Amino acid sequence: MAKIVECVPNFSEGRDLEKIEKIVEPLRGKEGVKLLNYEADKDYNRLVVTVIGEPGAVKNAVIQSIGVATNLIDMNKHRGQHSRMGATDVVPFIPIKGMSMEEAIQLSRETAKEVWEKYNIPVFLYEKSATKPERENLATIRKGQFEGMSEKLKDPNWKPDFGESKIHPTAGVTAIGARMPLIAYNINLDTTNIEIANKIAKCIRHSSGGLRFVKAGPVEIPEKGIVQVTMNLTDYTKTAMYRAFEMVKMEAKRYGVNVLGSEIVGLVPMEALADTAAYYLGLENFNMDKILESGLME
Prior knowledge:
- It is an enzyme of class 2 (transferase).
- InterPro entries: Formiminotransferase_C, Formiminotransferase_C_sf, Formiminotransferase_cat, Formiminotransferase_N, Formiminotransferase_N_sf, FormiminoTrfase_cat_dom_sf, FTCD.
- Pathway: Amino-acid degradation; L-histidine degradation into L-glutamate; L-glutamate from N-formimidoyl-L-glutamate (transferase route): step 1/1.
- Residues 181-295 form the Formiminotransferase C-terminal subdomain domain.
- The strands form two sheets. Strands 1, 2, 3, 4, 5, 6 and 7 form a seven-stranded mixed sheet that branches.
- The chain starts with a strand and ends with a helix.
- The protein folds into two domains: 4-178, Formiminotransferase-cyclodeaminase, Chain B, domain 1 (2-Layer Sandwich); 183-296, Alpha-Beta Plaits, CATH 3.30.70.
- The radius of gyration is 19 Å and the shape is globular.
- 42% of the residues are buried.
- The mean pLDDT is 94.
- The protein has helices at residues 17-24, 55-72, 101-119, 138-142, 145-152, 194-204, 241-253, 270-281, 292-296, and strands at 4-7, 10-11, 33-41, 46-53, 88-97, 123-127, 174-178, 183-189, 214-221, 226-233, 259-265.
- The protein has 298 residues and is an alpha+beta fold.
- The longest helix has 19 residues, at 101-119.
- It has nine helices and eleven strands.
């Protein structure tokens, strides 16, 4: 059985279309690699790319893309709503078919080693690849962001897994790891009050006593006149999308705020949408076998 891996690199550029196309270009037309999707957000000033394919081919293409981003992005000038610590902020590998999590971890380590050797960018291993418990959570690694990372790396406890304890002067630091599929999910609120979004995010995220497998925070979207509760659902099989959505709606009512809608950044497993559809439609005995397209993909 062929081994298939997914990779979702996040780059700190969401506004300059010319730069975005150059960053994505190494991922196009490569044997063994398929570019599935890329989305740029001007407010977040962030590019999320999804590629899938044979592990070695995906690794090589992503490393090339990281090199382009390193040359084009100066983190000293970067501003955006999303937390970030590097030009290539994070690179997760997700085993999809014929590949174990252990193999994805090994692939992430190989990639991290090459990124340091080729581009002198220090790398932290995170999630399933983490070498210490406190490095499993990306938010913990990223705390301090680019501006505070030079000082953070002076602490011996925060020596990078690959590279020196010194950030790349323009590309910062990168996190690379292996994980299961994650859903980047944002919910829009009809208010400009960021503190309300912050209070709701605190209620629903696991680290504050909320829903398991949910990471959440507040984000302002000035050009739309709204704020968002931005989330990463790290295991949609344990905490469903609809559960997070309903809890945000419930908490928003406390402040007289309505939910305007929501958005998915990047790709989402069909099973997660099917689970949500079954909940809202009240479907009985519904499963993936009843979805027409699921049979076509086997």
